[in-house]
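User: Could you check the structure of this?
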Amino acid sequence: MKTLVIAEKPSVGRDIARVLQCTRNSQGALEGEKYIVTWALGHLVTLADPEGYDAKYKSWRIEDLPMMPQHFKLVVIKQTHRQFQIVKNQLLRKDVGTIVIATDAGREGELVARWILKIAGNKKPVKRLWISSVTDKAIREGFKKLKDGRAYLNLYAAAEARAEADWLVGMNGTRALTCRYNAQLSCGRVQTPTLALIASREQEIKSFVPKKYYTLTTVSHGMTWNWQDGKSGSNRSFDRGRIQSIAEKAEKDEMVITDVQRTVKKSYSPGLYDLTELQRDANKRFGYSAKETLNIMQRLYENHKVLTYPRTDSRYIGKDVAETLKERLQACAVGPYRKVAGKLLLQPIRMDKRFVDDSKVSDHHAIIPTEQFVQLDHMSSEERKIYDLVVRRFLAVLYPPCEYEQIKLTGSCAGEKWMAGSRMMKEAGWQQAYESEWEEEDDDLLMTVTSMPKLEKGRKDTVMRPKVSEGQTKPPAYYNEGTLLTAMEKGNLGTVATRADIIDKLFNSFLMEKKDKDIRVTSKGRQLLGLVPEDLKKPELTADWEKKLLAISEGRLKKDVFISEIRGYTEEIVKEIADGEGQFRHENLTNHLCPNCGKRMLSVQGKNSKMLVCQDRSCGYRESIARKTNARCPKCHKKMEMYGKGDAQTFVCTCGYKEKLSAFQNRRKKEGAGVSKRDIQQYMKRQQKEANEPINNAFAAAFAKLNLETKEGE
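Assistant: Sure, the predicted structure tokens are below.
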């Protein structure tokens, strides 16, 4: 009898097939002497739409809500029906005796496979492959340690509970809002509180009243000294007269050193990356969105096989992985990492609780290099950047701590307290893993120096150049994608695997937009927050869900108990929306008329483009006005936007510079940039593809079928 292996994606399936020596190629599968390997294309099966339960749900009417299927139905996704049939045919083969689930080792990966097995009517025994990288070695070792599929039934129950709960709240909440306010509105237990976070921060900024403050510095003993309030310890004062008076007195006095503290300190490297921390760093350093970073990581994991599984929330590795550190070091000791990794290979590899701890490893360990030999020249520029972040962080934790001598000086002048200080490096330690000096988030009064004058308690010196500086208190910063990820993580909003998609969904449904790197709530988003039930805006809701889903996966809570609670909650939010007295008005109406239905169109700002969208949900017409490009302005070097169509396409920069596409191509050729017609054609195809992608949310297809009347201006 043969064993059928079901992978989540074709690329992973082919890797497994190669290791298992499955060389005979049939459509959608690879076969060998003992194994058959096939694959999904992500989800092949999903929960049925409402109309799959009752024909009346084809029309969206608030009287028919809430929709409460007694038993949820599964349906094969139309676009991938062909691949499902291939997988099903392999499952039903008489010479197949065992099934191995080899989808991604996590909650959603479990759901992908289990739903396929369920709808195909599988009765054969199931085993589970659970690996954190797709190198040949990891696959071979994983197949030696296959687990009984029954050990993951609770994980499957948690995954199915999540899907059914999101269906109940999302479908009912979205239909209730859409019908009640005759506008394309959606809500969800993660996206709505995330939007509320951004709106709350905007309100903080709007209501913030800045205050002027003053600081005072002077030079003495060859160092810069900062005045410090003797009571509060602050180096700021809101009383200009007081600071000016101290400055005048200090100019006529001496600085007496009253205390000298010399301390040898150790600084430990930052921990290994989990996905959220990596997305945060990539956004801060390179401006990558959370989704872009995840996609790049996925390629490094699946295609290049040089990094481990990306969707992890752990920053630790287990003892079993720690035993492979030498091989991983040898694999990444290439190019710019050769010298740094080589030093570590010449001595025993240190392991401690700071990054090796089995108790702190969840489904997957931290993101680290694999044992696969690295070919940097096969990577794109973006892949190199993300790989560099992960490798240097990995190398850093294996180095000893950085050691430095910290010197803090306290002085007295004009009857006031003054502070100065510095740090002098003794051992670079883990900072050797980085080419540039590490930015310490520490006391900003300390300077890094190479030598220090001999300073002792009681020593006096003249004071020079007392300087009063003026500043203003600042409001909290607007969220960017990096800081939003941090806020979502702290609020338990979503998981490492879903946060990037939630952020993208909020952009694509025009509930929020970007102004430079700052994220702002749109008029539509603000109105939505005023219309949804208060409870749905609270982060505590989704945090409670995740807590209960974890309990289901660990066998401490029954799925039916959780779903029963969600049904009751769904009834509450539908009633609250139906009884709502608010109104929704489009504030972005333009005078452009839709060429299909003649109604006024809406001006919307997508994540990477400006568009005109018909206000009538059932019409669905939209057109692009301008789209962000990677072309740089020759004057200010900022990225330009492209306006117009056909021969009239023009690049426009915020500095006022304009250039037709044809002129841009000619200029780039003269500059030796090598922009060919093929490059331009590929670029334009990408732009067209993006323009045709869904611009709304997961319910876009359902909205397109609506036949509700839409009043102009609403």
